[in-house]
Amino acid sequence: MQFLLIIYSDEGLQDQAVMQEITAAHMRLGAELQESGAMVGGNRLRPSDTATTIRTTGGVQSLHDGPYAETREQLGGYYLVEAPDLDAAVAWGKKIPGGPNYAIEVRPIWPLG
Prior knowledge:
113 residues; 4-stranded antiparallel sheet; flat; Alpha-Beta Plaits; two-stranded antiparallel sheet; 26% helix; alpha+beta
């Protein structure tokens, strides 16, 4: 089974030493995921102010600058992993580093077909 480990974090974190530590921890986790064979993919995302959202209301589409939701925590990146079950995916999710406040959403992939 594949799971998306979605990282929500505070984009306002400015402490460069903390950011370097978090980045190094992500590099170590990526290597661990690769070595275990669980890594399918993953990426860091650019800040939410670079997003464009397409909203559809009543069948009419409109474009908006910025993320879908205006919240303090924003979607910052993700890992796509292969895991035998939810418990194994959650175990990987618990290893994802972040700043002082962050959340990891673990969601199973629903394959097409």
